[in-house]
Amino acid sequence: MKAQGPLKGVKVLEFVGLGPAPFCAMMLSDMGADVVRIDRPGAHGLGPADVLARGRRSVGLDLKDAQELETARRLIASADILLEGYRPGVMERLGLGPDIALERNPSLVYGRMTGWGQYGPLAHAAGHDINYISLTGALGAMGDRDKPAIPLNLVGDFGGGAMYLGFGVLAALHHARATGEGQVVDAAIVDGASSLMASQYQLAALGLWSPERGANLLDGAAHFYTVYECADGHFISIGPLEPEFYALLCEKTGFDGQAWPADWSGKGWAQAKAALADLFKTRSRQDWCDLLEGSDACFAPVLTYEESARHPHMVERGVHVEIDGVRQAAPAPRFSRTPGAIQGSAPQPGADREAVLADWLSD
C-alpha cells in the first residue's frame, strides 16, 4: 500500500469488531493512516465486498496464547491510536486494557466504541443501533404520527458512533503529540446521537419544536419540507424554507403560494400538503427534474443508491468509485493539498503478519 493523505504516518491498531469501529478505521485509512487489523487466526474474510475493511493490513493473533498476547502488546507500544468496539471489560480481561496499554505506550490514544458507553446501568447489556437511538429520543423524533421511521443505521452506528470516535481519537492525537500524554476516548453511540440532536434542542428552547412526531418544520410535517410521490410512483423532495425559494417553487410549478404560504407556525400545513401532493402526482419524476433541478427551488429527486451513482452531479464529483469490481463511496472529505485515497480492498485476515511485524516492530 502507498499511503497518501493528511494522516500519512499515523499508525492505528484495530481490534476487529462490527459496525462503527471498522467504519472509523476505514475513514482513518482513507486519510492515509497505516491501519492494522488484529484478526483471529483462521478467520475468513469477505474479500472486496467488505467495504468497511478496505485499506488495511491484517495480522492474525491468538490472544489466548501468552506469546501472541505479548506480540499484541508490542504492537500497541508502537501504535499512535488503538480502536476497539467490544463490551466494557473485554479488553481488560484479555490483558489489553487501557492501564496496561498506556503503561507500555504513555502517548497512546485508546479509542473505545460502544453503544451504551463504558459505564451506566445499561453498559453491559446487548444492543444495536435501533436500541441506542431509541434511548436518545432521535428515533422517536423521526417518522409520521403513526410510528417512528428507522433511519437505517446511519444516525446511531455511523453518525453518532463512528464519526464521534474518529473526531475523538484525532482530537486526542493532537493533544498527545503536543504533550506526550495519551488518554482513553469513550465514544458511546447514546452520547453521539444525543449530540446530533443539538439543533432540535435549540429549536425546542426557542419554542419551535414539539415532542410530537410528524408535527414539526423538519420532520416532514411542513408542506414545503417533505417528499412527494410523482405520477410514475417515484418520489421527489422539496425544502424551500426561505421565502424567496418558496416563491420560486410556486412560480415554476404554478402552486398558489398566496393561498398556501410557507408559514412556520404550522397553520394550514396539512391542507397545503394535500394540495401539493395532488400537483406533484400530475407529472413524472423526470418531468419535475427537468423543471426544477438546478434551480433555487430547493429540489432533488429521491434516488436509490444505484441511481445516485449514475447522477451527473455525483459522477462529475467522483463520489462513487469501483474497487476490485465493488462500487463504493470515495474518501470524504476532500483536501486541497493532501487528498485521501482508498488503500486497497479488504485484506485477507492474517495475510500481512510478517510484513506488519517487520514494519512496526523493527526497533
Can you characterise this structure?
- There is one protein chain.
- Helix content is 37%, strand content 14%.
- The chain has 363 residues and is of the alpha/beta class.
- It has a six-stranded parallel β-sheet with strand order 3-2-1-4-5-6, sandwiched between helices. A three-stranded antiparallel β-sheet has the order 7-8-9, with helices on one face.
- The two termini are 21 Å apart.
- The relative contact order is 0.15.
Counting DSSP H or I runs of 4 or more residues, the number of helices is 14
Question: Looking across the biggest beta sheet, what order are the strands in?
Answer: 3-2-1-4-5-6
Structural class: alpha/beta
Return residue spans where pLDDT drops below 50 for at least 5 consecutive residues.
none
- Average of the residue pLDDT scores: 96
Helix content: 25-40%
| Radius of gyration, CA atoms, in whole angstroms | 24 Å
Shape: elongated
Number of strands: 11
Q: What's the SSE pattern?
A: EHEEHEHHEHHEHHEEHHHEHHEEH
Most strands sheet:
6 strands, parallel
Report the sheet-strand fraction: 5-15%
Gap between N and C termini: 21 Å
